[in-house]
Amino acid sequence: MIDNNRANLLIVIPTYNAKVSIIKVVSEIIKEMPNVKIVIVDDNSPDQTAQLIKNKFGSNFRVKLIIRRHKGGRGSAVIDGFKEGLEHKNFKFFIEMDADFAHNPKDIQRLIQEAKKFDVVVASRYLNRSQIVRWGLKRRLISRFANLWIKLMLGISLSDNTSGFRCYNRSVIEAVDFDLIKSRGFIVLTEIAYQIHKYGFRFGEIPINFTPVDFNKSNLNIKEVKEAFFTVLRLKINSFLKFDFK
């Protein structure tokens, strides 16, 4: 049975120049789960994303907007959203997702259902029943290489280590030491997952249809690719030298 109440669920959505889709995404989430709490963390988007959110949801206490002064990266934005959620004891599940409909709000319930059996559930693009729509060869190769590099170096048991559509049980978020996170971009996903892996929490995955709206545009840049490569290397070296957090 699907529970649409979900007053125990916090959804964190990082945004940067997301005015094209953010209102539709949030509206769809609220339609699916009227009592959900949504925290949007915007990096002072030049396209006035924040103002659009204020105009549409300013009177809705279920939607909280956090505006950061500078572009700090997706990963650190999610962390700020999680920290906001930890201030409130009623949240049992924490979900992070993107603002561009690449992550379908209708899959949220499936994540939560699976989270009853696992500590962390990742919406994977690389399971047998998953599908990636409208991604070019270059983007697919980068994603595949990143996932292979992470799996070989860190041993995290996920088919998709770079998916930003995840559901965490509260105990997991409480256990993560965010002060140890050194990166800022998408590789923060891996730093968090590595801590979770080392602490012995259980991972689960669900298949999804991954359909980014603007498939010609990618938030991934050379700087983030380099950061990802050296972050994974740093984590591995620290583990060998016993400078790990555990």
Commentary on this structure:
The protein is of the alpha/beta class and 246 residues long. It has helices spanning 22-32, 49-57, 74-86, 108-115, 137-154, 170-175, 188-199, 222-240, and strands at residues 9-15, 37-42, 63-67, 93-96, 120-124, 131-132, 166-169, 203-207, 209-210. It is built from eight helices and nine strands. Helix 1 (22-32) links the parallel strand 1 (9-15) and strand 2 (37-42). The longest helix has 19 residues, at 222-240.
Give unreliable regions as ranges.
Answer: none
Q: Which percent range fits the helix content?
A: 25-40%
CATH class: Alpha Beta
Radius of gyration over alpha carbons? 17 Å
Broad shape: globular
Largest sheet: 7 strands, mixed
Sequence of strands across the biggest β-sheet? 3-2-1-4-7-5-8
CATH architecture: Alpha-Beta Complex
Total beta strand runs: 9
Given helix and strand content, the structural type is alpha/beta
| Count of distinct structural domains | 1
Order of helices and strands: EHEHEHEHEEHEHHEEH
β-strand percent reads 15-25%
Give the arrangement of secondary structure elements:
Layout lengths: L8 E7 L6 H11 L4 E6 L6 H9 L5 E5 L6 H13 L6 E4 L11 H8 L4 E5 L6 E2 L4 H18 L11 E4 H6 L12 H12 L3 E5 L1 E2 L11 H19 L6
List keywords for this structure.
246 residues; alpha/beta; Spore Coat Polysaccharide Biosynthesis Protein SpsA, Chain A; seven-stranded mixed beta sheet; two-stranded parallel ribbon; 9 strands
